[in-house]
Write a structure and sequence with these properties.
This protein is an alpha+beta fold. Helix content is 35%, strand content 17%. It has one domain. Strand 2 (16-19) and strand 3 form a beta hairpin.
Length: 72
C-alpha cells in the first residue's frame, strides 16, 4: 500500500466540524495524521511518499468546470 504524507498535513487543524446537525470538536487534527503515519511505518504497510501534482485531464472529463476551477 502506498501512503501519501506531507508535513503540510499539520496545517489541517480545524477546531470544529458539523456531525449529524451538531457542532462537535474537530476529529481531523495533525496528531491523527502523525499517528497514522507512525502506524503505517510500524506495521510495514508500504512506502510513504510525498504528494505530487497531477494532470487534471481525467478529472475534467467527469467534473464540471466550476468544480475544477474551485480546486486549489
Amino acid at each position: 500500500m502506498k501512503t501519501v504524507f506531507s508535513p503540510l498535513h499539520a496545517g489541517h487543524a480545524g477546531q470544529m466540524e458539523l456531525v449529524t446537525s451538531a457542532i462537535v470538536p474537530g476529529f481531523e487534527k495533525p496528531s491523527r495524521a502523525e499517528f497514522i503515519k507512525a502506524r503505517v511505518e510500524s506495521e510495514k504497510l508500504g512506502p510513504i511518499i510525498a504528494p505530487h501534482e497531477h494532470d487534471l485531464a481525467a478529472a475534467k472529463r467527469i467534473h464540471k468546470s466550476d468544480y475544477i476551477d474551485f480546486l486549489p
